Amino acid sequence: MMIQQRSLNELQPHALEFTVEPSDVTVPEGNSVMLQCAGSADRKVLQDGKVAPNIRWRGPDGQDIGIVGDTFRSQLTNGSLYISSVESNRGLTGFYHCLLSVDGIGTIVSRSARVSIADLPDINQESHEIYLYAGQTAYFKCMSSLLPYSIESRYHTEWLKDDLPLRMDLTRMLLLPSGALEIDEVVPADRGTYQCNVTAGTFSRLSSKSNLNIKSTAGQPQSFAPPAFVIVPQPQTVREGDTVILDCAANGNPKPTIRWLRNGEDIDMNDLDSRFRIMGTGSLQINSMQDTDAGDYQCRASNTEDSLDASATVQVQVPPKFILSPDDKVAYEKEELELACSIHGKPTPIIQWLKNGDLITPSEYMQIVGGHNLKIFGLIGSDAGMFQCIGTNPAGSVQAAARLEIIEPGN
């Protein structure tokens, strides 16, 4: 007769768990890095007077790090991993994991933490001759590709005019997070060559020069003109909680007004609690992106002559979150056991199961059912240990652990 499984929660709550897990870190090449890790175990599972579990680290090559003899990596007494100098040619960048273990109980693995080097982005190397009338808007691109706001903020951008640092007139000039320079209401004194200088740590890179020319009306009034975009928003894929900037600016006569729509509906900028605001002449900033903010955004430039739209799709990735995490279990040999796990995220997370830190390969004996639960057929004593459900998508990863204890029939 099948004997009902009993929860272990009352006997040994939180048999083994992380209290601190390492996080992603990006630094200039040659800088040091500290990856933190700490955990706890129920006192009932600790032996020989120990007060904490054992901690070790697994490196980007998937192997445990041998701290002895490692020139660049050392484990501190609190369990944290210290990398004295992150260098790209020494195999120090990539994904790291912290492993927590107690003899006789098992091992669990932390979420992954990526160590990367803050390389300089690709800089615009296209020269442009820009011709504008006084009062129009100038836009100078710096980086040649769009980067997430969180990455753009790692770099320092400075603009030069005629090879000298630009004196920013904050009433008309705006340095956008992308590094681009916007000058509103240009005047003859703005005429000249412009280029950006991007730095990260001790490294820097210059863009090509673009020349701004101010056209003279020579006493003739400027003719009416419909809106023409100077810059249009670009499609973006961001993480939940990120800040997003959608660049947009337009010229025309009369000067166009710009408003924003999402999925065809006007965005209310007047709410004091709004996460949406206009930057400069028309760029849109969205703070703390939410899943519901995903959609098609339209920048609409209008004047008395015409109206013009430019659209971009924004996709929001949601980090994995547990809907249901596995519970500690006590079960008898020869029984069947199912450990539950349900994780939400966007895109849908990939779910993997580990036992004592090692990936479980599905077989006739251990199967993934429903795409997320782990089912074990015919339990034996060696099945005892720490099981983990890990969910991963491009926005992040989560893990939860459960202890399985096996009891012989009759006990």
From TrEMBL:
<dbReference type="GO" id="GO:0098609">
    <property type="term" value="P:cell-cell adhesion"/>
</dbReference>
<dbReference type="InterPro" id="IPR036179">
    <property type="entry name" value="Ig-like_dom_sf"/>
</dbReference>
<keyword id="KW-0393">Immunoglobulin domain</keyword>
<feature type="domain" description="Ig-like">
    <location>
        <begin position="320"/>
        <end position="405"/>
    </location>
</feature>
<dbReference type="InterPro" id="IPR007110">
    <property type="entry name" value="Ig-like_dom"/>
</dbReference>
<dbReference type="InterPro" id="IPR003599">
    <property type="entry name" value="Ig_sub"/>
</dbReference>
<dbReference type="InterPro" id="IPR013098">
    <property type="entry name" value="Ig_I-set"/>
</dbReference>
<dbReference type="Pfam" id="PF13927">
    <property type="entry name" value="Ig_3"/>
</dbReference>
<keyword id="KW-1015">Disulfide bond</keyword>
<keyword id="KW-0325">Glycoprotein</keyword>
<keyword id="KW-0472">Membrane</keyword>
<feature type="domain" description="Ig-like">
    <location>
        <begin position="227"/>
        <end position="315"/>
    </location>
</feature>
<keyword id="KW-0677">Repeat</keyword>
<feature type="domain" description="Ig-like">
    <location>
        <begin position="13"/>
        <end position="116"/>
    </location>
</feature>
<dbReference type="GO" id="GO:0016020">
    <property type="term" value="C:membrane"/>
</dbReference>
<feature type="domain" description="Ig-like">
    <location>
        <begin position="121"/>
        <end position="213"/>
    </location>
</feature>
<dbReference type="InterPro" id="IPR003598">
    <property type="entry name" value="Ig_sub2"/>
</dbReference>
<protein>
    <recommendedName>
        <fullName>Ig-like domain-containing protein</fullName>
    </recommendedName>
</protein>
<dbReference type="Pfam" id="PF07679">
    <property type="entry name" value="I-set"/>
</dbReference>
<dbReference type="InterPro" id="IPR013783">
    <property type="entry name" value="Ig-like_fold"/>
</dbReference>
